[in-house]
Specification:
heterodimer; A: 196 residues; alpha/beta; Rossmann fold; 5-stranded mixed beta sheet; 3-stranded mixed beta sheet; elongated; B: 187 residues; Double Stranded RNA Binding Domain; 4-stranded mixed beta sheet; 7 strands; 37% helix; disordered N terminus
């Protein structure tokens, strides 16, 4: 094999390896969030906890063709989480820590939701990387303003999308999972007497 | 055989990125700064039609290494306008008939992903606040974001796409955190 041939093969392998080694970025915002109907709202003011460190936390999960996808679950799903709480409660604020009981008392929030977001993704396609199946689980520890646990809620959302649907959005399955998990979280909170 | 595999890999990459019209993800506010703005008890405020409305204007035509990034609102001026309206509604301050009005002109709007390792978002917006026709604020706000990117278009292009809402969020946070803006829409 000539040196030129070896060089071309090495460059091609390096190129493909870099492509394979990099995770493809997607955005996983919800397509839609639960509707806010003023007449049905609980009069409570609630807070949710989200830190800048969580917003900056990147997660990498499998895509198709042996590739991976990367995204920011907390940053991308904060609107869905907040809109979900706003679909149940009159007033919603964000706080950087559930441990700062003084700040929580001053905020006037009677309940504090501390979410954990867990995601999964996959695709059976051997050639294309966008995930066709996406799962989003939200686990919320709910405490009162003094930091005492009131309850926990856990919901799972799922989203599917075919490659022909992607067109301009490679995170479509994830967006649908976000919509699903937000609707289920809203229903779960509404159905829990400790949270009304 | 190698050439065939390489061609398949390249084709798959192109299918997954290039030649496509990409849609910018929906806006999500910087809620901490929005909550702080709410505590200042602003006046009811309306939002004018942000400029430029021409869909062919440079600020409304973003490309990511040749792939067009589209706004779900039709133009990026409308995307920013809708972002502010949504935020003001969220803190119960928006009123389309209010005397206090926000106007804005986007002067620069760019997702720069030509770099090997790093991409940048750049946005300059001249924002004006008037009350009963009298100008209370005229100021140009800037947002500069930086994010990890790649020489590979299959990574850099969707990264530029997914980072656009963060650029707008950064700009809007700079506006809400500015005491001059808070005073301009305050009582």
């Amino acid at each position: 094999m000539s040196m030129l041939r070896i060089g071309r093969v090495a460059a091609a392998i390096a190129f493909v390896a870099v492509l394979a080694g990099c995770a493809h970025p997607i955005a996983i915002q919800a397509e839609k969030t639960p509707e806010r109907v003023e007449a049905t709202l609980s009069s409570k003011k609630v807070a949710y906890v989200m830190t800048d460190a969580e917003r900056g936390k990147q997660v990498i999960t499998p895509g198709g063709g042996g590739d991976r996808v990367s995204y920011y679950p907390y940053r991308d799903l904060e609107k869905a989480l907040r809109d979900t709480l706003r679909s149940v409660y009159t007033d919603v604020v964000v706080v950087p820590s559930a441990a700062d009981t003084k700040a929580l008392r001053e905020s006037g929030a009677s309940l504090v939701f501390t979410p954990e977001i867990i995601t999964t993704s996959s695709s059976p396609s051997p050639f294309t990387w966008p995930p066709t199946q996406f799962g989003t689980e939200i686990v919320c520890r709910v405490t009162d303003a003094e930091g005492q646990e009131v309850t926990r809620v856990r919901v799972n959302g799922k989203g599917n999308a075919e490659f022909s649907e992607f067109k301009s959005n490679f995170g479509l399955a994830a967006n649908r999972a976000g919509t699903d998990v937000a609707e289920k979280l809203s229903a779960e909170i509404r159905g829990n007497p400790k949270l009304r | 055989m190698f050439r065939l595999r390489f061609a398949v890999a390249c084709t798959a990459t192109l299918l997954a990125t290039g030649c496509a019209q990409l849609m910018a993800p929906s806006y999500s506010s910087d809620y901490a700064s929005l909550d702080r703005l709410k505590t200042t008890r602003p006046e009811k405020t309306s939002v004018a039609t942000f400029q430029p409305t021409d869909p062919n204007h440079a600020v409304n035509n973003l490309t990511l290494r040749g792939a067009r990034l589209k706004s779900p609102s039709g133009s990026f001026a409308k995307y920013l306008e809708n972002a502010l309206i949504g935020d003001l509604k969220e803190i119960s301050v928006y009123d389309p008939d209010a005397n206090t009005r926000i106007d804005a002109v986007i002067q620069h709007n760019e997702m720069a992903i030509g770099g090997i390792n790093t991409g940048e978002g750049l946005m300059d917006v001249e924002l004006t606040v008037t009350r009963a026709g009298a100008e209370r604020l005229r100021k140009t706000y800037q947002a500069r974001t930086s994010f990890e990117s790649s020489f590979a278009g299959a990574v850099a292009i969707p990264k530029g796409q997914s980072e656009y809402p963060n650029l707008v969020r950064t700009l809007v946070r700079n506006v809400y955190s500015d005491p001059a803006f808070v005073a301009a829409i305050g009582k």
